[in-house]
Design brief:
The complex is a heterodimer of chains A (about 130) and B (about 160). With about 130 residues, chain A is of the alpha+beta class. Chain A has one domain: BolA-like (GMP Synthetase, Chain A, domain 3, 2-Layer Sandwich), CATH 3.30.300.90. Chain A has six helices and three strands. In chain A, strands 1-2-3 form a three-stranded mixed beta sheet. The radius of gyration of chain A is 15 Å and the shape is globular. The N and C termini of chain A lie far apart (about 35 Å). Chain B is an alpha+beta fold and about 160 residues long. Chain B has a six-stranded mixed beta sheet with strand order 2-1-4-3-5-6. In chain B, helix 3 packs parallel to helix 5. Chain B is elongated and about 55 Å long. Classes of the chains: A alpha+beta (about 130), B alpha+beta (about 160). At the A-B interface, helix 3, helix 4 and strand 3 of A face helix 3, strand 6 and helix 5 of B. Chain B: Keywords: 2Fe-2S, Iron, Iron-sulfur, Metal-binding, Redox-active center. Chain B: One of its GO terms (cellular component) is mitochondrial matrix. Chain B: This is Glutaredoxin-related protein 5, mitochondrial. Chain B: InterPro entries: Glutaredoxin, GRX_PICOT-like, Monothiol_GRX-rel, Thioredoxin-like_sf. Chain B: One of its GO terms (molecular function) is 2 iron, 2 sulfur cluster binding.
Chain lengths: ~130, ~160
């Protein structure tokens, strides 16, 4: 089966640098059979065009034998630069191909409760919107 | 509790304030312990905090008034299992604690959940543990009977 990988055009790379970086790194390190990277910034109290809140669904054989915590730590490690800079929140679903086949559902993040509005560290994270 | 009071009398310098709230069913804090931290908490301090209760949550806001959807999700999941009495720390009130716990846990985001001093994970992990039944088992190891077990029993009796 051909892996399902979103192909980013040069235009998307320029306008969504963080998303592009996330996709590239997850693809390279985890060779996913299915990958979804969702920019959820528009669900939060941040400027339009921000790349601060993401949800990733990664389906990879590399997760076999790993606990949930180990899988999430691995994804955090792969995306450590993004998490240290632009990404304020990262929701992770890390499944093996078998688990994905049994339950091919991408979770939905909870509604924002406005925390970012009161979060002084957000200004540094959000910076200038890409668009 | 005594060690925290002794620490606070030794390090009474202005700076960040850490509030520990023991949250009751009605959301009112029954006891508040304040500590003054002049810099990022030492790992020895945090290793004490994470063991303060069977369930310890570092979150944005409080269980009575979460300030973040992910923190709220953790509160709601715990509440579904009948876990209303636990220790929580509002990292929005203490930026030093906020960064300190991220360093201590080696985990980049908030909320963060600890069971018996052991790091469990964030909102996503707690949700998946709830969905696959593992949370009931983990609470049992803490000596906490999940309220969902009683719901299941009642439904079977019908």
């Amino acid at each position: 089966m051909q892996p399902t990988i979103a192909v980013s055009s040069a235009n998307i790379c320029m306008n969504r640098p963080v998303e592009t970086s996330i996709r590239t790194k997850l693809n390279q390190r985890l060779e996913p059979t299915h990958l979804e990277v969702v920019n959820e910034s528009n669900m939060h109290a941040v400027p339009s065009g921000s790349e601060s809140h993401f949800r990733v669904l990664v389906v990879s054989k590399h997760f076999e034998g790993m606990s949930l915590l180990q899988r999430h730590r691995l994804v955090n490690e792969i995306l450590c630069d993004e998490l240290a800079s632009r990404v304020h929140a990262l929701s992770i679903q890390a499944k093996t191909p078998q688990q994905w086949e049994c339950n091919p559902v991408i979770e939905v993040s909870p509604p924002c409760m406005g925390g970012s509005k009161h979060d002084h560290s957000m200004a540094a994270k959000v910076g200038t919107p890409s668009k | 509790m005594n060690s925290l009071i002794r620490f606070s009398t030794r390090v009474m310098r202005p700076g960040s304030i850490l509030c520990r709230q023991r949250c009751l069913l009605d959301g009112q804090a029954s006891a508040v312990v304040t500590r003054f931290l002049s810099e990022t908490p030492k790992s020895s301090d945090l290793s004490e905090l994470v063991k303060k209760d069977k369930v310890v949550v570092f979150m944005k806001g409080t269980p009575a008034q979460p300030m973040c959807g992910f923190s709220n999700a953790v509160v709601q999941i715990l509440r579904m299992h009948g876990v209303d009495k636990y220790t929580s720390f509002n990292v929005l009130e203490d930026q030093d604690l906020r960064q300190g716990v991220k360093n201590f846990s080696n985990w980049p985001t908030i909320p963060q959940v600890y069971f018996n001093g052991e790091f469990v994970g964030g909102c996503d992990i707690l949700l998946q543990m709830h969905q696959n039944g593992d949370l009931v088992d983990e609470l049992k190891k803490l000596g906490i009977r999940s309220a969902l077990l009683d719901v299941d029993n009642n439904e079977q009796k019908k």
